[in-house]
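Minutes, project check-in

Agenda point 3 was the complex the collaborators sent over. CS summarized: four entities, 260 residues total, and the question is how they sit relative to each other. Sequences were read into the notes so everyone works from the same version.
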Amino acid sequence: MQKQETLTKNQKIILDLIEKSDQPLKAYSILFDVKKKGINAPLQVYRALKKLVKIGKIHKIESRNAFIACKNSKCQIAKATVFSICESCEDVTEIHDHKLSEHLRDFKDNKGMKYNKYNLEFFGLCKKCV
Amino acid sequence: MQKQETLTKNQKIILDLIEKSDQPLKAYSILFDVKKKGINAPLQVYRALKKLVKIGKIHKIESRNAFIACKNSKCQIAKATVFSICESCEDVTEIHDHKLSEHLRDFKDNKGMKYNKYNLEFFGLCKKCV
DNA sequence: AACGCTGTGTAATAATATAACATTTATAAG
DNA sequence: CTTATAAATGTTATATTATTACACAGCGTT
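CS then shared the predicted structure for the full assembly.
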């Protein structure tokens, strides 16, 4: 069983907002939205984001500098993420593909490096945008 | 046969610099280094970087906002990149693994999305830092 | 020559992210 | 309960990364 983290007020506010969106949100757009809740400064947002990423509640889409909620409710996977990104409408979906995960988990390079994390982003055109 | 791009003066200067480094360089560090060559503004750097990425001469390490030369001299692969990143010393290596590439190339999601590009970043500790 | 395309140079500014400091709250240990 | 320790807060300022806007130059095509 996963340790159930207790979120603080700021963390809850920001997680709520991100979970209500099915698409990634940017830090300053989050800041704008939570000002009415008393969060006034970028750093308050970034701190909460950092924690939420750490515990796997959200993921950062690196190529977009944006944050999306992890839908995988059971296990918090902060360490193995795969996303598909539509380059036209910017729709982002988290991918859970067992076979692909296996390949990635089992990957060994020839440098003897010890991996503990990976992030994979696929780019293309979604059904609507083709 | 690949179309041989002719690089402009700024593009050459910046590619040279990046190729001389075996590690990723950041845009403003590049700017600092090329000021002596008459490149004065961030935009001049970013424009060259954009072009060099586009033609596959360099790649952007998304999680680090940095740019590394593509060592794969024969084919310019701007569309399928894999990197290993040491979280301690920040050493970055481009990975060419035939089997892994196959899996990634052949990956199909269940949303009917058409992929034309991917970027994969592995994180961990390199031999030296373990 | 007129056009489209790509690149240049410059100034200004936008967008993303962190440092530093003082204080408060939560958790654990004696 | 008290101490101590880690984590979070609030605030100001600043650092870092990246783009917009504009005027113009070079080049190949028609």
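Noted in discussion: The longest helix of chain B spans residues 42-54.
Follow-up: revisit at the next meeting once the mutant set is ready.
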